[in-house]
Amino acid sequence: MSRPAPRLVVLVAVVLVVTLGVGWYVVRAAASHRALVSSAPSVASTDLGSATTVPHVVFRSTLPGTHYGEVAVVPLTDPAGPRAFTDVACDQLDTVGTTTVCLRVLRDVVTRYESAVLDSSWRPTVTWPLPGVPSRSRISPDGGLVATTAFITEQACSKAGSSTETRIHRADGTDLGNLEEWAFTVDGKPYTATDRNFWGVSFVDDETFYVTAASQSANATWLVRGTVSARTLTAVRTGGEYPAVSPDGTRVAYKKLLRTEAGQKVWAFAVLTLGTGTETVYNATAGTDDQAKWLDDTTILYGLARADEPGTTDVWSLDVGTLAARPTLFIPGAWSPAVVR
Q: Rounded to an integer, what distance in angstroms lies between the CA atom of residue 93 and that of residue 148?
């Protein structure tokens, strides 16, 4: 019997060491996570049934502990108080009425990404795959349409320059298409550059929505109005990302680039009054990186990460009816809020 070649012996030894090392790291990381969870302070909770029978906010809980990442509910009258937990975990979500869209990462031997439409019992009625890590989700005001944005994994990327995929589905799962396949117009002319990209839908109704578009070749970003029935997209303004339409449909909030510091972009929220074209920038929100959600016609909600606690975020509110208003903590340890009245 021939002896193994020296190189093969070395290779086997290296693989064994790496395998053992990875296994040790996973075990240690899991133990560390369990320790953090067990030492985390308890979160005051309340009954889910009673919390959902009054006007409330649905959100992703980011407080450390066993409920981290789960969908939670708080009454509008006490958003910072005890929260009711579901048994569903989401990375991004939106809720209209009793319908919730839940974007989530399914970690297994092979990591998968999924969008699920949940009913009033928090159980999926339909699911479809996402091409990568969830980014944003929105439901139309009547609950009939669902928009999702996800980052495209390298394996799923089929277009040069593409970084996200934004699709609109009906709530029953019917796919209305990738927005990159819809007709896009800029300055009255068709824009067909292969690197056009769209993200962050916000619905006006079941026919009209706003979304961000960008093109590296044009070095431009646009605020875009979309029409569902015609499958058309029209640029209405340069700049502005992640639009959010006010409940009365008269204004659009979005994040706007203020400046660059040490190579990092600094964003703040701006609000565009559609009737007049007037844009107001709220410098007090500098440092944000989220898609706003309207609490009512004069107040926006948005998430902000805690600098000293990785993984923990808070939801803040801002009265955009007053330029001098300061942000107020709305829900501690929360992300991706949805207001249900």
A: 10
Identify whether the C-beta of residue 85 lies closer than 8 Å to the C-beta of residue 67.
yes
Mean pLDDT by 10 residues, the chain (341 residues): 44 36 36 41 84 97 96 98 98 98 96 97 98 97 98 60 88 97 98 96 98 96 98 96 97 96 96 97 96 98 96 98 96 98 93
Beta strands 84-89; 70-75: pairing state: antiparallel
Query: In the prediction, which pLDDT does 50 show?
Result: 94
Give the model's pLDDT for residue 28: 40
Under a CB-based contact definition with an 8 Å cutoff, are residues 256 and 269 in contact?
A: yes
Per-residue confidence (pLDDT) for residue 53, from 0 to 100 = 96
DSSP letters spanning 208-250:
EEEEEEEETTTTEEEEEEEETTTTEEEEEEES-EEEEE-TTSS
CA dihedral 297, 316, 60, 213 (to 10 degrees): 60
* Contact yes or no for 115/101 (Cβ under 8 A): yes
Question: What is the separation, in whole angstroms, between the first and last Cα of the chain?
Answer: 78
Beta strand 220-227 with 208-215: parallel, antiparallel or unpaired?
antiparallel
Using alpha carbons, select from 234, 271, 275 the residue that is nearest to residue 255.
271
CB-based burial of residue 245 (10 Å sphere; 0-12 exposed, 13-18 middle, 19+ buried)? Answer: buried
Structure tokens at 226: 């979309």
Which phi and psi (to 5°) does residue 230 adopt?
Answer: -90, -10
